Amino acid sequence: MGEAETQTRESGEAAERDADLVRRLKDGDARALDELFRRHRDAAYRVAYRLLGNAEDALDCVQEAFIHVMRGIDAFRGQAAFRTWLYRVVTHAALDYRRYRAVRKTASLDTEEAREPAAAPARQPTPDQEVAARDLGAAIDKALENVSEKNRAALILYTEGLSYKEVAEALGISVGTVMSRIYNARARLRELLASEIG
Description:
By secondary structure, this protein is mainly alpha-helical. 75% of the residues lie in helices and 0% in strands. The model is unreliable at 107-117 and 119-123 (pLDDT under 50).
């Protein structure tokens, strides 16, 4: 069996396991939510972190997303994979959080007592951070901040392993729009990275 066939089989098995856990959760089995959380928390966190750029905000977003899953599981009909639905919930929660944060920041600047937000603590370089792969990862994360929100969301979900169709379902857009957004996000990243590196 080839690598692609193995990955497809494993993906199908994971989707079946998720579907079983969703059925159990709908039947009131609280342990099923724990298992779904354990299976998907890391990927959900990566999506939230890349959209928000802040670890604490990403953790809050993932927590909010799983609360939404718990409360809204009866509305989930299984027309898409659970993973796709979860990523949609996480993406919307992260984008809502970004908008809320922007409004809150604007409101605080409008007050007389407006002050500069506290600067993020400077990262102390470690030997591991000097590795080229880590440097490139940091450059990509920085560049991602300058990619439009819609294009960034599509690219992040795609890099998390969702197909074009699954990204379309997660974002509520057409596959063609997904392809266009991913193309534009990649082009913008190349442009930003070229100026950063060159």
